[in-house]
Fold this sequence. Notes:
Layout: H1 2-33, H2 38-43, H3 49-59, H4 65-78, E1 80-84, E2 87-91, E3 98-99, E4 104-105, H5 106-141, H6 146-160, H7 163-177, H8 192-225, H9 229-236, H10 241-268, H11 273-278, H12 284-294, H13 297-325
Antiparallel strand pairs: 1-2, 3-4
Amino acid sequence: MLTYLIRRLFAVAVMLIVVILAVFSIFFLIPKWTGQDPALFFVGKQADAAAIEGVREKLGLGDPILLQAWEFIRGIFAGRTYIGGGDVIECPAPCFGYSFKSQQAVWPVLLDRLPVTLFLALGAAVVWLFIGLTVGVLSALKRGTIWDRVAMSTALAGVSLPVYFTGLLSLAIFAYSLGWVNNAFTEFGEDPAAWFSGMILPWISLAFLFGAMYARMTRASMLEVMGEDYIRTARAKGLGEKTVIGKHAMRSTMTPILTLLGIDLGALMGGAILTETTFSLPGLGQAVLIAITDKDLPIILAVTLITASAVVLANLLVDLLYAVIDPRVRLT
């Protein structure tokens, strides 16, 4: 177990470095290779020549590529000092960049929004796992029945309907017409009850999309597992159906579910743009949308790094959970 953990941690560290270098290439190298000035993307196209030259000096765009990449990586872990245009700007670690438009470091801005996205993703994950696993297992056990057909038809509708449609529809019915839930975001520290009421619809709307996909995957995996030899052996030994399903079949079924969950949760850490926009949640997704509108590239760069890193770390956790869920997996 320890050897496996060390090996996986080393692989994750290497992957994170690769991700950082890939993001650096996308935002700094590719524009230069296509004949564009990266400084224009960071300062804005309406800036004068002096401002553009100042940003170019601060980012060190005239330095060798390897030195630029080193400063980029070192800034994330140790902080960075931007010098140029007569200014000296300190960006403490972790320095994911500095917005020359708003004149502030990116990380503190995103740190204020990160809890909103985190609670949105985790809350929705709990809902969609409960719905997806329950519906998928029951559909597999009642294959071909009316329940199976209705459940899979509903799941197909859930996959097909976009979040902004189900979100706005739920707001119109449960918030504006019935008044059952809060239709405005409230900070948890101000009023926990109002915060919970305001998060119910975002959780359900986001979970409706993912829960449908998980229900279909759970059904397919369960149908495949139920035909395995060890399931027939367990039944032949006289084990009850609940034991066969819960202790044996579900463990194997959970393996692909965990894999998908790691990817989905990691991706959502970059912000659920449609959900956050629909419900006016001040999360990372909303920050990205505003940054795209304002052409504030450092915000987009930082969220890209956070999302990619979250996917890598989530998959590390999934790999470690494999041995707990499925006894056939051995961490050696």
